[in-house]
Write a structure and sequence with these properties.
Layout (H helix, E strand, L loop, with lengths): L11 H24 L1 H9 L7 H30 L2 H18 L8 H24 L1 H4 L5 H26 L8 H22 L1 H6 L15 H20 L2 H30 L5 H29 L1 H20 L1 H8 L3 H12 L3 H15 L5 H19 L2 H8 L1 H20 L3 H23 L3
Length: 455
């Protein structure tokens, strides 16, 4: 592709280097947040006898999300005005990998040290994703955007799978037979993930050129100036969103049903380990099943989207998830009726429900694209990211609810997120919003022609 004036042309090795960041950082979110450390945290880091085990995990996730939200105006201003995105990506990488390495020193009972390290590492992970995503417009054209983004997404799956295979090798002890060795192996696993993340991300920093330069007036800009600029942009985006009520209604529905998906992604390891009594090996197999199911589901629901449109696909996926959550809620009843072991039923439910993970996110993103005027799509997708964080915070209400009523009963809250989200989505007039976006595009083109004059 052609490069902007004064910047080097984009090479294939740069695209590979950029995609490798997804390969690298998926190790963290898969092993630490979703599957392995989350269950270890709840069962062994939280002091014995505590009645707020899931709540503490929610606290760590909420704290990291709020920190990322507070820093998001600064991140946005860096991406748009400050330049030097590569060094900031490096900083977040070091912060995430370093805090993950720090989990090696966390002993059972060191609750607040663990919360602090999860807060720093997960916030750095989320902010790093924003910096990494901002490179995409430097490396891709509109025609290649989806292909290059998909390459990163695909490599991310492989990174997560590879690390889960490594967990099978690293964590072999069971706490019932040798608790000391089990704790040590989980600590060593965090060292592996921290080192893996740092090393696997090196191709990004070696191969990808720095193309971002400070905008005029932002050379050497202070943190305060960048934050004020970012806050002004956020306020402008909020005003813009209110001009498009259909898009805003969709964002509200998205926030609610995404909360349900975030519960699944952040508590799946905890539920599987504590309720279904899966071993670490079983957890690894379960995750591999979910990943393969998600990849297949993304393909099949993607074909469906081409036939019925993204809104109906989102609705279909929400009903799919309702069925999956009901399957988990009645897991032990199903096991009793069928004669299967609960773990076997859970594997089956995971295989089915997991097919809706990628589809719900990709179809929702497609709706945002349809409802966003072309000239304002960057701002609207930035708003999409903000509502995603709100959805995560809402979903973490699962922790205290679970501690009060039990994880099995708390699954009804997850079901409610999907049901209420679907009801809200049903009331969103997508066609009306698409027409409004098209009209805005038409007016923008008219203004552009008026300024340039007839050709």
């Amino acid at each position: 592709m052609a490069a902007a004036h004064g910047t080097p042309p984009v090479r294939k090795r740069e695209i590979f280097g950029w995609a490798m960041y997804d390969f690298a950082n998926s190790s963290y979110t898969t092993v630490v947040i979703s599957v392995i450390y989350s269950s270890f945290f709840v069962d062994y880091i939280v002091p014995a006898g505590s009645d707020a085990r899931d709540t503490y995990w929610s606290v760590a996730i909420i704290a990291s999300t709020v920190l990322a939200l507070l820093l998001s105006p600064f991140v946005g201003a860096i991406c748009d005005y400050g330049g030097g995105k590569k060094k900031w990506l490096a900083l977040t990488t070091v912060a995430c990998a370093g805090a993950t390495l720090g989990l090696f020193f966390v002993q059972p009972g060191d609750l607040w040290l663990a919360v602090a390290l999860i807060t720093v590492s997960n916030a750095a992970f989320m902010i790093g994703e924003s910096f990494c995503g901002s490179f995409l417009t430097d490396l891709a054209t509109k025609e290649t955007m989806g292909k290059i983004s998909g390459l990163g997404w695909g490599l991310g799956y492989f990174g997560g799978l590879l690390c889960m295979v490594a967990m099978l090798v690293l964590i072999t002890a069971e706490p019932e037979s040798d608790l000391t060795l089990f704790v040590q192996q989980n600590q060593q696993a965090m060292v592996f993930i921290g080192v893996f993340f740092a090393i696997a991300a090196l191709p990004t920093f070696i191969l990808v050129a720095e193309r971002s330069t400070p905008a005029p007036g932002f050379e050497g800009a202070s943190f305060g100036k960048l934050m004020r600029t970012g806050l002004a942009e956020m306020a402008d985006s909020a005003k813009l969103a209110r001009k498009y009520p259909v898009l805003l209604k969709f964002f509200l529905a998205f926030t609610v049903y995404l909360a349900g998906l975030e519960v699944v992604m952040k508590f799946v390891g905890i539920y599987a380990r504590s309720e279904v009594k899966l071993s670490v090996g079983d957890l690894s197999v379960m995750f591999i099943i979910i990943q393969l199911s998600a990849a297949l589901g993304a393909l099949l629901f993607g074909l469906l989207e081409g036939r019925i449109g993204p809104k109906r696909t989102v609705m279909a996926t929400l009903f799919w998830w309702m069925g999956g959550i009901l399957g988990i809620y009645f897991l032990f009843d199903i096991a009793d009726l069928t004669g299967f072991e609960p773990r076997q039923v859970f594997f089956g439910v995971s295989l089915v429900a997991g097919a809706g993970i990628g589809s719900l996110q990709s179809s929702s993103r497609a709706v945002v694209g349809l409802l966003s005027p072309a000239a304002r799509s960057a701002q609207m997708f930035g708003f999409w990211g903000t509502f995603s964080r709100f959805g995560l915070i809402l979903g973490m209400s699962f922790g205290p609810v679970s501690d009060m009523v039990g994880r099995q009963n708390a699954m009804l809250l997850v079901l409610a997120f999907f049901v209420v989200g679907a009801v809200m989505l049903a009331g969103v007039p997508i066609d009306e919003g698409i027409r409004a976006a098209a009209e805005t595009d038409r007016l923008d083109r008219g203004e552009a022609l008026a300024k340039t004059g007839p050709v």
